[in-house]
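Standup notes, structure subgroup. Blocker cleared on the adenosine-5'-diphosphate input:
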Amino acid sequence: MVKNVGRIHGNPPKGPTLMDNPLGKYFSLPLPDDKLIATYVWIDGTGENLRSKNRTLNFLPKVPEDLPVMSFNGSATRQAKKTNADMYLFPRAIYRDPIHRGRSILVMCDTYDTQLQPTATNNRVRCAEAYLKCAEDEPWFGIEQELFLMSADDMRPLGWPYKGFPERSSRYYCGVGADRTFGRDLMEAHYKCCLYAGIPIVGLNVEMGPSQWEYQIGPSVGVSAGDDLWMARYILQILAEQYGIEVSMKPKPLPDWMGSGAHVNFSTKLMRDVNGIVEIEKAIEKLGYAHQAHLKLFDPHGGRENAKRLIGSHQVAHGDELSAGVGERLNSIRIHRNIAFEKKGYFEDRRPGANCDPYVVVDALLRTCVLNE
Ligand code: ADP
Ligand code: MN
Ligand code: MN
Ligand code: MN
Ligand code: MN
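Run returned:
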């Protein structure tokens, strides 16, 4: 694979990028009228990494149920102990494919074992069940995905000096300029690809750490919040492959530097209605009782990775107790000032780690705040 970390470091390009890749012209080859490429995407047995495979179709599916169920070898994805275990991908959500374009599609799938039971990391099933029970409450989720861009060769953040560390400075956040912002072309390309795909991306900004970024998805309705965020993650990783960049969503990739979270913004119809602040306060009270149980769900390592981030500094709350407040970023739960002023809207759960499974977080918030389980 051609690597081009050099360009982002501000050095002369070491090799072709996606744009001037000698194979690039073949990407734009038109497909025969009756053909399209479907890329099936799924979460593997780590609960954290994605896999994908392609299939040519000779029809345009309208809904996921139109699509064929595909099989894959679960023993190569940490999803089965037996060798060559045939497991199954069930299509759940369809997006336009910014990589193959034309009529081609990306398909978010969930996974089933040889007995057609959901696999251990198929958290979508439970989440979809919870959502179905309260669909009339119209739960919306908006997720802020933070991440670091790393050179895949040595897992060093882009633009960081080869020895030591960059200057500690407040200039990186929303920074402009080659000395403080790294990988903008990649992140802007991702933004446009998400819009093209039909993913409701609403924003992008450079975060507090150099080469740390945040994009925001949503609001998405119920379980689709998980589909939308996982597909956005997929697209960014495919684009980053072209540069030899690894997208790190570790909650605390570098000790003593900013961690990465996935703030989950949540509202129901009642919260968005007149005086919805009362509903918001009720929900936050319930979150207080479930706090310790929730912490275990906020990263795929039982909360252990995220605990390195929830230390009460670097703009994150301490994990021990749930704290809530208006405007204050050091709280676990934050209510935006204008929402406190308007007395309706949504609240922000700042606890989940950047590597969280959004299906798990959505499920937990629905069951605790809406279903009272
Ligand atoms: P912050 O001030 O915490 O950095 P951002 O602007 O980064 O906030 O992100 C705001 C998030 O809130 C977005 O993901 C957006 O989709 C989401 N959001 C906006 N309105 C609602 C709502 N009514 N319910 C749930 N999420 C919402
Ligand atoms: Mn095969
Ligand atoms: Mn944000
Ligand atoms: Mn942020
Ligand atoms: Mn936030």
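Discussed briefly. The two ends are 49 Å apart (CA to CA).
Next: hand off to the docking folks.
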